[in-house]
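Following the same procedure, backbone shapes were mapped to integers, yielding the entry below.
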Amino acid sequence: MEVVDIVSLITNVGFPVTLCFILIRYVLDTIGERLDNLDASLKQLAEAIQSVQRKSEQE
């Protein structure tokens, strides 16, 4: 292989692969934050439901 072939291979394959890794990292970070928010919301909901159940049992 000549240098031109190697540069062409890196340009054609290397850039898309690098871009895919960057996009995957961004998506995983974004989904991770959303899942953390969803988890916190579900915990609050569970606590609210338990509170309502306790109040209804006391009556």
Remarks:
- The helical segments are 3-58.
- The chain has a mean pLDDT of 85.
